[in-house]
Protein: Patatin family protein
Amino acid sequence: MSVSVLELVRARAADGSVPGAREDPYRLGLAIEGGGSRGTYASGMAVELERRGLTRVFDDVYGSSMGAITGAWLLSGKAEHGTSFWWHPEVMPNVIKPRAALRRKPVVDLEFLMNEVYQRWAGLDFAGVLAAPARLHPIATDADSGEGIDLAPHLTDAESLKLALRGSAGLPLLAGPLIRLDGRRLLDGGLTEPIPFHSALRDGCTHVLVLRTRRADERPLPPSRMENLAVTAFLRRTAPAALGAWRERTRHRRADDEHLSSAGPLTQVLVPPGAPEVSRLAVDPALLRRALDLGAAAMATALDIET
Structure:
């Protein structure tokens, strides 16, 4: 590898090239980790990329769960505007509603998030995302095979993109009925590929910048006994083929951490040690704003390190 990921980012920023008209032989991917409300950290990193005019340096953008949504906002050219809705007083308390489970309603209301918040209030240009020079790759889990799936080939219009983003973020048990897209039933991409750099490498990316939503000092832990029992029961009823992915999730995440820590075509930007814990169902506006700012600062630090 003759050039590092960040060296390639800087070189492309300097030459002003765009996807499809590069002056180098490389393919640069951006991979954005999921994690529900922890996605505020990666959102801040994406905002810093946008502030510096670096969106155009990437040829493809991969995202799992909330990472796919962050990728859509980045490709729309309005990442900073979109992230401001994390702490809007009418948004998160109406998207994440733990007590809704008592009424057998979705705890995470992705339909409200996509159609009301992003389309009506925030004005996310779904068609514009699909027309962007770089291609968006939302990663989901196929409920009937239990395998990860790149939904990019299924994105034909604004409605299919909205369904793909909801399907990619469809947390088992919490997000309600499974989304269907082109005959496929979809579950959260985090079951099979929470950090979607594998898809980027399989697609031929020579370099991948990875935006993380976990701290540098944070090791993936298995789910609590209660969560494991509840999700296992849900998957047995709804998507038994995905049970293996659920059971192996923690082991795979630890393997991903090890892979990302080694030298090669991957560079990750991690949440700094000591940053506040943000659960995937966090709704506190001050906490989410703090996480976004720390994510932006982490990205700025990575970009400003001299090589």
